[in-house]
Inverse folding.
């Protein structure tokens, strides 16, 4: 069973994402409330995919990607959730190691489809 980390400082959005993913029954889902917690979990756990919000306290999703070890980037697909959808933001995210960019708002069905595709 694949393991997913959901990192977002919005309690409501994080709950929505976690509930959506857990309803699928295909994944083990863990949460992080900010960038520092996300970095710590990524460095100490094993995840197949991490959903990182762009704007979080402590560290942005980009900061997390830049600081995470090469081993984590190799084993974990890093996905950015953001309302910042300009091309320069996407380029910065790709350079940091993001493999997929999901603009907010997104539908739960779209999120599930993307995750299934990335983990297949």
């Amino acid at each position: 069973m694949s393991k997913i980390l959901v990192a977002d400082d919005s309690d409501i959005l994080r709950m929505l994402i976690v509930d959506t993913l857990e309803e699928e029954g295909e994944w083990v889902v863990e949460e992080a409330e900010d960038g520092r917690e996300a970095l710590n979990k990524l460095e100490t756990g094993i995840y197949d995919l991490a959903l990182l919000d762009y704007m979080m306290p402590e560290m942005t999703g980009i900061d997390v990607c830049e600081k995470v070890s090469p081993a984590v980037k190799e084993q974990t697909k890093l996905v950015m959730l953001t309302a910042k959808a300009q091309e320069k933001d996407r380029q910065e995210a790709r350079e940091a190691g993001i493999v997929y960019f999901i603009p907010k708002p997104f539908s739960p069905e779209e999120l599930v489809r993307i995750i299934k595709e990335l983990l297949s």
Summary: Strands lie at 2-7, 27-32, 49-53, 77-82, 100-103.
